[in-house]
């Protein structure tokens, strides 16, 4: 009898070409996703005169610099050059590119699953830290740097030391108004932004099983904000139903074989994890960040902490964060006035996210300006078919095209200096949304609530009598 | 890339936790080709005022000659941007000493000859204390995994494979191509046993 194995063990073994004496593994890469920011990787490849080893397993996506308005006329020459460079590289290497006018374009971590490029049992690499998103399907998915991008382009393999296995179990049922975003911000606040460093996190428990694929992707996406390069969830019926008939998912007999293989991708009952953490779903409330690190997060009903009373190791950071954020210790989070809102990103730009925001905004007006950028052109089309765009525009918010947009600001969608933004994104780092910008992370429903009142707000009372 | 196993240079304390890669290089500079150099973008928005001028009170501006940074936990967390490492390397930094590093940052650092030296929090606090009056030289020895600042000797941890890579200045692509036959054999087996792993529409 073989020893019980974790999901990580099984995925690792399935991709390990060899293991060196020093314990580092050479892994086969099933999918390599590249974007405009991969230009350093392509330049390294070109410097060696090498070609992409597996163009059929390599997909190029325009997302980081994608304009969300007036795409036909890119006025910023730097942005135009970045997109053109990706086009040139994709063409020279024979790669499928999801370009600006493609009906399948979108954020790389949204369209990978949407197109069935992401599947259980695959190893997915991308030069982007939020590649952990794809682990929601039971894939081994992790972000890599430019040198590693060049390596994958040249060899379709990646060197990696196996991380330690960690399991985060959430049992119970999430209350209305509480979402995967709140689970994530909750565990990161509890364990710290380096809480899962060196680990691959598997999420388990009834609350995780109860999440849709969109929710699971949000949770796995944010693994990196807790320090974990990998997040993963064992595939199940929810996974298979999401994937069946996706353009690049297997069909017919191949689909049957795949589902049979994927059903084995679970941690064995007696498998041991180097670290185990458990949460009760009933303890999780709508959560917002108050500082400049995702770990500086609290339930919306809380007060901003006093740096003098937090652990000494975190006191300096708390003081600096309050100063940057323009907030006062002891002040209630709820009621903090905001200047604008943003809904979108690889974290929370999927159809379920837009539905949750629309349920709060329907028939209401936003008191502050805001931008909504769907995660993909397909999400945009679906939202428009459901009339969600009308709800947003009637509320006074701007409905735009898909891209990374205001999450990272590379395309020019920026939050102004000193402005406070309620945002469905993943990083409240200083200057992330623009120099001097003040970001509060929260779920899309909470962003919608903030838009309605013009301040940080508990969404729950605003949901009475409305579908979540 | 040239390998190295010892380095002695002036070390500066940057007493900040969670210096993420968005701080190390703001996203707006990442479209620049590497050949133009990234050193001027290092910690750009901390080092410079709104007009782009260097802030006189920022330690790195007072001591741009340093080659070692001593800093706090979770250095290089966040985005996978290797440009954060380019900014450090192009500004002349050879090693960063901290209690912990972002996983992707540490890997990117080693791929560019930059040492991410992990030290115990108490030891890091001692180094920090010794640097409160300004930069002092630290001698780094990768072979023995030790740092020396005056009379203070501090051990650091570093993955053995990363030490080998830093010392030899190896490039992975050359090493991997030597395993070409194993890769081809693995691919053939995977195609036969897991045909679903290839995209259906391509």
TrEMBL record, chain A:
Which InterPro entries does the entry mention?
3-IsopropMal_deHydase_lsu (IPR004430), Acnase/IPM_dHydase_lsu_aba_1/3 (IPR015931), Acoase/IPM_deHydtase_lsu_aba (IPR001030), Aconitase_4Fe-4S_BS (IPR018136), Aconitase_4Fe-4S_dom (IPR036008), IPM_dehydratase_rel_enz (IPR050067), IPMI_cat (IPR033941)
Iron listed as a keyword: yes
Q: Name one Pfam family in it.
A: Aconitase
Q: Which cofactor does it need?
A: [4Fe-4S] cluster
Could you list this entry's UniProt keywords, alphabetically sorted: 4Fe-4S, Amino-acid biosynthesis, Branched-chain amino acid biosynthesis, Iron, Iron-sulfur, Leucine biosynthesis, Lyase, Metal-binding
Which Gene3D superfamilies does the UniProt record give? Aconitase, domain 3
Q: In which pathway does it act?
A: Amino-acid biosynthesis; L-leucine biosynthesis; L-leucine from 3-methyl-2-oxobutanoate: step 2/4
Catalytic activity reported: (2R,3S)-3-isopropylmalate = (2S)-2-isopropylmalate
Sorted alphabetically, which SUPFAM superfamilies does this protein's record hold? Answer: Aconitase iron-sulfur domain
Q: Name one GO biological process term.
A: L-leucine biosynthetic process
Which EC class, in a word? lyase
Q: Provide the GO MF annotations for this entry.
A: 3-isopropylmalate dehydratase activity; 4 iron, 4 sulfur cluster binding; metal ion binding
Summarize where [4Fe-4S] cluster binds, as residue positions: 346, 404, 407
- The domain of life is Bacteria
Per UniProt, residues of the Aconitase/3-isopropylmalate dehydratase large subunit alpha/beta/alpha domain are 9-454
Q: How is the cofactor bound?
A: Binds 1 [4Fe-4S] cluster per subunit.
Q: Which EC number(s) does UniProt give?
A: 4.2.1.33
Assembly notes: Heterodimer of LeuC and LeuD.
Chain's role: Catalyzes the isomerization between 2-isopropylmalate and 3-isopropylmalate, via the formation of 2-isopropylmaleate.
Give the family per the record: Belongs to the aconitase/IPM isomerase family. LeuC type 1 subfamily.
Supply the name of the protein. Answer: 3-isopropylmalate dehydratase large subunit
Automatic annotation (TrEMBL), chain B:
The UniProt entry's GO biological process terms, in alphabetical order, are:
L-leucine biosynthetic process
Question: Listed GO molecular functions?
Answer: 3-isopropylmalate dehydratase activity
Reply yes or no: does the keyword Lyase apply.
yes
Q: Look up the record and name the pathway of this protein.
A: Amino-acid biosynthesis; L-leucine biosynthesis; L-leucine from 3-methyl-2-oxobutanoate: step 2/4
What top-level class of enzyme does the UniProt entry assign? Answer: lyase
Report keywords, A-Z.
Amino-acid biosynthesis, Branched-chain amino acid biosynthesis, Leucine biosynthesis, Lyase
Provide the Aconitase A/isopropylmalate dehydratase small subunit swivel domain boundaries.
Answer: 6-120
Highest taxon listed in the record's lineage:
Bacteria
> What EC number(s) has UniProt assigned to this enzyme?
4.2.1.33
Q: Which CDD domains match?
A: IPMI_Swivel
Pfam families reported in the protein's UniProt record: Aconitase_C
Q: Which reaction does it catalyse?
A: (2R,3S)-3-isopropylmalate = (2S)-2-isopropylmalate
Task: Look up the record and report any one GO term of the cellular component aspect.
Answer: 3-isopropylmalate dehydratase complex
Q: How does it assemble?
A: Heterodimer of LeuC and LeuD.
Function recorded in the entry: Catalyzes the isomerization between 2-isopropylmalate and 3-isopropylmalate, via the formation of 2-isopropylmaleate.
Q: Which family does the record claim for this protein?
A: Belongs to the LeuD family. LeuD type 1 subfamily.
Q: What is this protein called?
A: 3-isopropylmalate dehydratase
State the organism of origin: Rhodalgimonas zhirmunskyi
Provide the organism lineage as a comma list.
Bacteria, Pseudomonadati, Pseudomonadota, Alphaproteobacteria, Rhodobacterales
The protein's gene is named: leuD
């Amino acid at each position: 009898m073989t020893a019980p194995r974790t999901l990580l063990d099984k995925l690792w073994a399935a991709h390990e070409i060899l293991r060196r004496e020093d314990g580092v593994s050479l892994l086969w890469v099933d999918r390599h996703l590249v974007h405009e920011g991969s230009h350093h990787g392509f330049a390294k490849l070109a410097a060696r005169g090498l070609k992409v080893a597996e163009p059929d397993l390599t997909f190029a996506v325009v997302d980081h610099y994608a304009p969300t308005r007036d795409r036909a006329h890119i006025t910023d020459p730097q942005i135009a050059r970045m997109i053109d460079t990706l086009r040139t590289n994709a063409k020279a290497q024979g790669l499928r590119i999801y370009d600006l006018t493609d009906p399948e374009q979108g954020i790389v971590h949204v369209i990978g699953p949407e197109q069935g490029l992401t599947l259980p049992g695959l190893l997915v690499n991308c030069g982007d830290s939020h590649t952990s998103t794809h682990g929601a399907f039971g894939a081994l998915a992790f972000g890599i740097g430019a040198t590693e991008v060049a390596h994958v382009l040249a060899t379709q393999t990646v060197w990696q030391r196996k991380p330690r296995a960690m399991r985060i179990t959430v049992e119970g049922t999430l209350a209305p108004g509480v979402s995967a975003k709140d689970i994530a911000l909750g565990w990161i606040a509890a364990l710290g932004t380096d809480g899962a460093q060196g680990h691959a996190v598997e999420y388990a428990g009834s609350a995780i099983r109860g999440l849709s694929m969109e929710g699971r992707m949000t949770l796995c996406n944010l693994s990196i904000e807790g320090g974990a390069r990998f997040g993963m969830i064992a595939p199940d019926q929810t996974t298979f139903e999401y994937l069946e008939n996706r353009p690049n998912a297997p069909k017919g007999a191949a689909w049957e074989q795949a589902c049979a293989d994927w059903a084995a991708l679970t941690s064995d009952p007696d498998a041991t994890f180097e670290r185990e953490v458990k949460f009760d779903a009933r303890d999780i409330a709508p959560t917002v960040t108050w500082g400049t690190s995702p770990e500086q997060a609290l339930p919306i009903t809380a007060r901003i902490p006093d740096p003098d009373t937090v652990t000494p190791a975190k006191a300096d950071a708390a003081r600096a964060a309050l100063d940057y954020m323009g907030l006062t210790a002891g002040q209630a989070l709820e009621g903090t006035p905001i200047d604008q809102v943003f809904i979108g990103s690889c974290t929370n730009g999927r159809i379920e996210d837009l539905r949750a925001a629309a349920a709060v905004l329907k028939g209401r007006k936003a008191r502050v300006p805001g931008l909504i950028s769907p995660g993909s052109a397909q999400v945009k089309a679906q939202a428009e078919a459901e009339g969600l765009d009308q709800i947003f525009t009637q509320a006074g918010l701007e409905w735009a095209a898909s891209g990374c947009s205001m999450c990272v600001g590379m395309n020019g969608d920026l939050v102004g200096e000193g402005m406070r933004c309620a945002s469905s994104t993943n990083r409240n780092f200083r200057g992330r949304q623009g120099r001097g910008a003040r970001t509060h992370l929260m779920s899309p429903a909470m962003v919608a609530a903030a838009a309605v009142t013009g301040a940080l707000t508990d969404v729950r009372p605003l949901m009475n009598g409305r579908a979540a | 890339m040239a390998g190295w196993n010892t380095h002695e240079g002036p070390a500066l304390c940057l007493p900040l936790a969670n210096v993420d890669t968005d701080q190390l290089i703001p996203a707006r500079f990442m479209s620049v080709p590497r050949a133009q150099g990234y050193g001027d973008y290092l910690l750009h928005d901390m080092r410079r005022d709104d007009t782009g001028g260097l802030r006189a009170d920022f330690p790195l501006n007072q001591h741009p000659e340093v080659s070692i940074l001593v800093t706090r936990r979770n250095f290089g967390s966040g985005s996978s941007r290797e440009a954060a490492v380019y900014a450090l390397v192009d500004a002349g930094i050879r090693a960063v000493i901290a209690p912990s590093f972002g996983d992707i940052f540490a890997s990117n650092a080693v791929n560019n000859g930059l040492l991410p030296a992990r030290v115990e929090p108490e030891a890091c606090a001692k180094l920090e204390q010794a640097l409160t009056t300004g930069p002092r030289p630290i001698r780094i020895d990768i072979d023995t995994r030790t740092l020396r600042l005056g009379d203070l000797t501090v051990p650091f941890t570093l993955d053995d494979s990363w030490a080998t890579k830093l010392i030899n200045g190896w490039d992975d692509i050359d090493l991997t191509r030597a395993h070409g036959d194993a890769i081809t054999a693995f691919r053939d087996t995977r195609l036969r046993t897991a045909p679903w792993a290839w995209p259906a529409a391509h």
